[in-house]
Write a structure and sequence with these properties.
The chain is mainly beta. The protein has one domain (2-67). It is built from one helix and five strands; from the N terminus they run E-E-E-H-E-E. The chain has a five-stranded antiparallel beta sheet with strand order 3-2-1-4-5, covered by helices on one side. The chain is globular, with a radius of gyration of 13 Å.
Length: 80
């Protein structure tokens, strides 16, 4: 499974710092949803999706639409 970040307004996937792609195969795999959410916050995305893209052709990708509002605090961080 891959964890992707999709900008709903530009219809592009996050590739790397300052770079976006229309090809999900070229998108960065964040490895976890928290990492993708942190990037969305730091990129100041208003409307985005975190996508769980499964390698198994028998499983559909899971798309989770999210919206940050100006009053939303940043993602919580856990002390590890």
């Amino acid at each position: 499974m891959r964890v992707l970040l999709f900008d709903s307004s530009s219809r592009r996937y996050y590739h790397s710092a300052g770079r976006w792609t229309s090809d999900p195969a070229q998108a960065l795999d964040f490895g976890g949803t928290v990492q993708a959410a942190h990037t969305a916050f730091h990129q100041r995305l208003q409307s985005f999706e975190i996508i769980l893209a499964f390698d198994d052709a028998h499983m559909s990708d899971l798309r989770v639409p999210l919206t940050l509002t100006p009053s939303s605090p940043g993602p919580a961080t856990a002390d590890v």
